[in-house]
Amino acid sequence: METKKINNNNRIKEEKLFKGVLLLNAKIIGLVLGLMFGLMLFVATNWLVIKGGYQIGPHLELLNQYFIGYSVSFWGSLVGFAYGFALGTLSGSLIGWIYNIIVKLRN
């Protein structure tokens, strides 16, 4: 009887640990993805500005169709960082939230 109680206790502890390890912190994932997206857009824009040339980044310039105020310039890179951070934060939080829902449904 005592061993049954110990086994049951161990099983409950293992289930709690399993659930705790599987769940993601959606806020942290959102923050990391936001910083990554923002920095990628910031660095790519400034890379093209520093590189210079006749036509500076015609493909990257197309982002102004989605990100109002964005341009391939230093100030545009700051605007792009803000948009990238916002988009990455929302995407990462959504991914973490959906992942946690799926994990909870499977358990």
Task: Give an overview of the whole structure.
The chain has 107 residues and is an all-alpha fold. The protein has one domain (24-106). It is 79% helix and 0% strand. The protein has four helices and no strands. The chain has helices at residues 2-22, 26-51, 58-61, 74-106. Helix 2 packs antiparallel against helix 4 (74-106). The longest helix is centred in the last third of the chain and has 33 residues, at 74-106. It is rod-shaped, with a radius of gyration of 23 Å. The model has no long low-confidence stretch (mean pLDDT 87).
Task: Return the structural class.
Answer: mainly alpha
Helix coverage percent: over 70%
State the end-to-end CA separation. 28 Å
Shape descriptor: rod-shaped
- Beta-sheet strand percentage? under 5%
Q: Low-confidence segments, ≥5 residues, pLDDT <50?
A: none
Number of helices: 4
- Radius of gyration using CA atoms only: 23 Å
Largest sheet: none
Q: How many runs of DSSP E, i.e. beta strands?
A: 0
* Count of discrete structural domains: 1
- Order of SSEs: HHHH
Query: What's the overall average pLDDT, rounded?
Result: 87
Provide a quick synopsis of the model.
The chain is 79% helix and 0% strand. It is built from 4 helices and no strands.
Which features characterize this protein?
single chain; mainly alpha
Topology summary:
Layout: H1 2-22, H2 26-51, H3 58-61, H4 74-106
Helix pairs in contact: 2-4
